Predict the structure.
Amino acid sequence: MSKIQIMDHPLIRHKIDYIRRKEVGSKEFREIVSEIAALMCYEASRDLKLKDVQIQTPICAMTGRELSGKKVAVVPILRAGLGMVDGILRMIPAAKVGHIGLYRDPETFKPVEYYCKLPADCEERDVFVVDPMLATGGSSTAAIQMLKDKGVKNIRFLCIIAAPEGVEKMKEAHPDVALYIGALDDHLNEHKYIVPGLGDAGDRIFGTK
Ligand code: PRP
Ligand code: URA
């Protein structure tokens, strides 16, 4: 059974609906995508384990808590996933970063792989795969399969906007992967773009259109 969490925090909702507006330019779009990623990371990291640690405050000794156990890796799906990396690293600065390059063929809508570079010990880490858009689910399911083929077991997927079609595909292909979704939209159009969505996330982040 997949764990699926759709964000219901008003700050996240406000920021997502703000960047949907077509007049929002790349600089502002990028900054807010990063903020949304940081806020979503807060929810997606809720189950990370803590351990006791002895510390000394200016007043006395105490048993404090720090993150324990497995370390974290952030893996953006290129290109648009890059926009979410900074926000996650601001929350978990010790995380390592891997990259998976996939683009969606404009005719077949199938993902085409062009790059994969992961931290050497990736299979021992909690991996946060990030991509702003989950549309057909082709890119995210393929990226997660690439990680599993390399032995990664603990994977969560964070996206800013999802279509129901993509959520279904992820649930079917990777029921063990927890999904953190900023907003669940209505449907895909004939070009497999999310409706209402925000357009092409990569182009909006990098100003390429
Ligand atoms: C976008 C987006 C996802 C993918 C989602 O990337 O960032 O990776 O499409 O669509 P899917 O769920 O139907 O696979 P795109 O292929 O446009 O590449 P880009 O990030 O390089 O622009
Ligand atoms: N990729 C995007 O960037 N936007 C969509 O709506 C669908 C796929």
